User: Which sequence fits this backbone?
């Protein structure tokens, strides 16, 4: 009898264990199913977010191209319109056509040297690809210019702390560009400070103060005719103490006396390196696009006295001389960082060679 009871208990225990195992299996399967469904839901949500971000990015690109197209309207009419007018008058691809195109490119402010390079490459491609139709020449020119613009193009990467020295002759829109640059960086989430290093020009400090108030960023300044390096010293010290992300410093726009300008920039550089060695230093040269080849000459002269890391082209929306962008890129190999495409605060756009090409040629 005791044996039967024992056997019954063992059977009951086995049944309970089996049921328990089955229940655990069911619970485990349900948990795995729940986790799988959760993972699929998270994946779906992530894919949706990525899709939305991609659509947003694509829309932003479309908007930027649209703004560039609008700003480059006159340049496009001048450059592409000029090329098309020449091609209409020729029936064969010959040396006379090359000479006429060369003159058209020079007139579109691409400069003599750059125009010669483009036409020389055009000759080679026509020969290599055995081009005989005049209508095919336009596409080749566009390819050559696009390749020039995109060569060695690296995007500007701003990492705090950064100090930006802004140089350029008076009248090119230097102060306005500084204000727009401060606004752009602030909109991107950076903390920004300005330094009034142009103590030489009358009203330069007051004009910069107006922009600082408008953008709502602090301005470090001294009195007119004060030592520029002393202003930079105070600005750098303040930016460092307050852990400001970006310090933008205005400098005097003197070019007629290169020696004085060079000495001043040396002193300013020395102060920055000594007081804030950790900060990355950028030197932006501001050029007025409407001055055409004169802007290229200014860039050449400033390059002799300053280690320029980037260019800012103003008034690109109001000129047919935007071809200087190509000339500067090819002749000086200084990257164009920003272009002004309007009068509003947000009309300073980061230069993108691909976007520029699409806006100009598509």
Assistant:
């Amino acid at each position: 009898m005791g044996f039967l009871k024992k056997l019954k208990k063992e059977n009951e225990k086995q049944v309970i264990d089996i049921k328990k195992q089955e229940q655990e299996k069911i619970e485990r399967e349900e948990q795995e199913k729940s986790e799988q469904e959760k993972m699929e839901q998270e994946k779906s949500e992530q894919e949706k977010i990525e899709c939305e971000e991609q659509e947003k990015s694509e829309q932003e690109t479309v908007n930027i191209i649209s703004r560039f197209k609008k700003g480059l309207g006159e340049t496009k009419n001048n450059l592409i319109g000029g090329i098309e007018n020449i091609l209409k008058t020729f029936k064969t691809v010959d040396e006379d056509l090359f000479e006429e195109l060369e003159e058209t490119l020079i007139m579109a402010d691409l400069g003599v040297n750059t125009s010669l390079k483009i036409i020389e490459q055009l000759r080679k491609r026509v020969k290599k690809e055995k081009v005989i139709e005049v209508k095919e020449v336009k596409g080749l020119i566009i390819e050559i210019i696009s390749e020039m613009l995109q060569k060695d193009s690296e995007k500007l990467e701003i990492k705090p702390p950064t100090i930006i020295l802004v140089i350029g002759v008076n009248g090119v829109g230097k102060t306005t560009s500084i204000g727009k640059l401060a606004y752009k960086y602030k909109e991107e989430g950076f903390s920004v400070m300005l330094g009034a290093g142009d103590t030489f020009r009358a009203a330069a400090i007051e004009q910069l103060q107006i922009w600082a108030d408008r953008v709502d960023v602090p301005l470090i300044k001294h009195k007119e005719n004060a030592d520029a390096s002393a202003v930079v010293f105070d600005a750098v010290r303040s930016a460092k103490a307050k852990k400001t992300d970006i310090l933008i410093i205005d400098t005097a726009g003197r070019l007629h006396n290169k020696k004085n300008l060079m000495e001043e920039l040396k002193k300013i550089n020395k102060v920055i390196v000594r007081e804030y060695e950790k900060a990355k230093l950028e030197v932006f040269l501001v050029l007025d696009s409407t001055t055409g080849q004169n802007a290229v000459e200014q860039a050449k002269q400033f390059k002799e006295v300053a280690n320029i890391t980037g260019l800012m082209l103003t008034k690109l929306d109001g000129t047919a001389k935007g071809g200087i962008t190509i000339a500067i890129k090819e002749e000086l190999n200084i990257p164009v960082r920003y272009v002004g495409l309007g009068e509003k605060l947000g009309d300073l756009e980061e230069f993108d060679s691909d976007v520029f090409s699409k806006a100009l040629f598509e």
